[in-house]
Specification:
Blueprint: H1 2-6, E1 14-16, H2 20-27, E2 34-38, H3 50-56, E3 60-64, H4 68-87
Parallel strand pairs: 1-2, 2-3
């Protein structure tokens, strides 16, 4: 990928569904442009290591949520109801 970037064939590249250790190893070979990991109201594991690592190393973070989105749609009304009761 580094050669393709150097040759001007691509501007950047990224990985999907990786942990901070993998990102760190890859960064030492060729700089990453983006990481795409699952992230939603239900699945927030990326907040612990991935997002801080991306921010520190200026790597874009692209969240995606295939199935978790359906779960979030069920949780949001309950969360809003609880929030309303707390604020009332």
């Amino acid at each position: 990928m580094g050669r393709r970037i150097d040759d001007g064939l691509i501007r950047g590249w990224g990985l999907s569904q990786v942990d901070a250790d993998v990102i760190d190893r890859v960064q030492h070979v060729t700089l990453l442009s983006a990481i795409r990991n699952i992230y939603s109201m239900v699945k927030r594991d990326s907040e612990a290591e991935i997002i801080p690592y991306c921010m520190e190393h200026k790597i874009g973070f692209v969240p995606f949520s295939p199935k978790s989105l359906q779960q979030a749609e069920q949780i949001i009304p309950i969360f809003l109801l609880i929030l309303y009761q707390v604020l009332s």
